Amino acid sequence: MRLNVKLYAGLSPYLPAAASANTAELDVTENTTPADIISRLNLPLELVHIVLLNGVYIQPEDRGSTSLKEGDTLSMWPPVAGG
Fold first, then answer.
1. Which of 10, 14, 20, 64 is most buried, most CB within 10 Å of its CB?
2. 77 burial via Cβ count (<10 Å: 0-12, 13-18, 19+)
3. Could you tell me the sign of the dihedral formed by the alpha carbons of 13, 80, 59, 6, in that order?
4. Banded model confidence at residue 83, pLDDT cuts 50, 70, 90
5. C-alpha 74 chain-centroid distance
6. DSSP assignment, residue 20?
């Protein structure tokens, strides 16, 4: 199945080479979780702060148990600071 992964700010360099506009389309198997995608893209856990699945925040403790579905969009941001 296919899903979209969007990485922002300091995470965008971890996208596959074919990505454009901070977005990559990935082929995944059933029961893939956000934690599986984080691992697959070699994202440092300390840099994955905000994870949204179709616009809904996924708590860190749920990232290994939330199954992704065909057509989902998984978006991730690092910690952000500013004023």
1. 14
2. middle
3. negative
4. low
5. 5
6. B
Report the C-alpha gap between 59 and 24 in whole angstroms. Answer: 22
- Residues of 16-35 as b/e, b for ≥16 C-beta within 10 angstroms? eeebeeeebebebeeebbbb
Report the C-alpha gap between 1 and 79 in whole angstroms.
30
In this prediction the pTM is 0.92
Cβ distance 68 to 35 under 8 Å? Answer: no
- CA distances to 20, 55, 80 from 83, rounded to whole Å, are 29, 24, 10
- Report pLDDT digits (tens) over 65-80: 999 999 999 999 999 8
